[in-house]
Amino acid sequence: RPTAVDPNAVGRISIAGNVIFNGIGQTSQFAATATFNDGNSKDVTADGQWQSSDTHVATVSETGEAKIVGFGTCVISFDYEKQRASVNVRASSPDTVTVGGRVREPGSGGLPGVVVVETSSGRSAVSNSNGQFAISDVPRRQLRLKAEKDGYETREVDTTAEQQVDLPMQRVVRLAAGETVKPADLAPNDVQYVIGKDVCICRLIRVAVPRAATVGVRVSWPKMGATMRLFAEGVTVSGEDELSADIPVSTTREVVMYFGWMTRPERDYVAFTFETTIR
Question: CATH number of the domain that 161 lies in?
Fold first, then answer.
């Protein structure tokens, strides 16, 4: 039967305070508010635990006062009665911004060792063990980030300093025409590609074709109520548990194919097998 909701229990926590800074030594007094299940709220700033994810950027006192000690980004979090809230803090020198975020491998978590470059300024950072990165002293303008790591598809995204950048990266999947591969499962938070007028949560597959030929492709996956689609060389096909297509290739080259979903599956992940033939 349904579990009774305790009206006196904390439903959520919220944090208020300045999160954008442009100088060392600047401070901000954060305030934490607990909202209870009965709708009442209470200031609990001094009653919980404050924490900074990077004390080289900002420290935070027991009473919620944050102080900037270096340029970069960090997360200030507050715990109270088994509930947590957090805010992203950014500190940069005057007339510049700090751009930060997290690089992740869909379905696996944060991705370390990724070189992230802001392409206009050339400034860069390397993601840490949790996939987090921060690039400081970037001139104020529209920003473009390029993320690279051996064995992964390069990503480029446009962003602004106000955004916490989410950078999913996929492992390179490469096979020769005539081979079969079973890549990592397609995840619900996987990479979105724009293909013509379509936006698809897809896995990119690279197929090396050694000569002018027709490449046969067959993709299969468990039937789960999801309509999947294959994009390749202007050919688009779809299916509910498998699909197949013949892709004409006129020269020796690598053909990029995209496999992903049109409708979300009942399950969170899609395991699939990608088979190719050549004739």
Answer: 2.60.40.4130
Q: What CATH number does the domain containing 257 carry?
A: 2.60.120.380
Domain carrying residue 16: 10-91
Same domain, 180 and 164: no
Tokens of 71: 């340029």
Per-residue b or e along 148-181, where b marks 16 or more CB atoms closer than 10 Å to that residue's CB: ebeebbebebebebeeebebbbbbebebebbeee
Q: Is the pLDDT confidence value at 226 over 80?
A: no
Last residue of a domain, one of 91, 107, 138: 91
pLDDT tens track for 115-162:
999 998 899 999 999 999 988 888 877 789 999 999 999 999 998 876
How would you classify the pairing of strands 143-148 and 174-176?
Answer: unpaired
Residue 2 has pLDDT above 60, yes or no: no
CA distance 10 to 183: 43
> CA–CA separation, 252 vs 105, rounded Å?
31
Is residue 5 in a domain? Answer: no
**How many residues in total does the chain contain?**
279
DSSP labels, 80-142: ETTEEEEEEEEE--TTEEEEEEEEEETTTEE--S-EEEETTT--EEE--TTSEEEEEEEESS-
Same structural domain, 182 and 162: no
My answer on whether 20 and 78 are in the same domain is yes
Q: Tell me the whole-structure pTM to 2 decimals.
A: 0.73
Distance in angstroms (rounded) separating the CA atoms of residues 62 and 210: 65
* Dihedral (Cα; 122, 102, 146, 73), 10-degree rounding: -20
Q: In the numeric block, which tokens belong to residue 93?
A: 């020198």
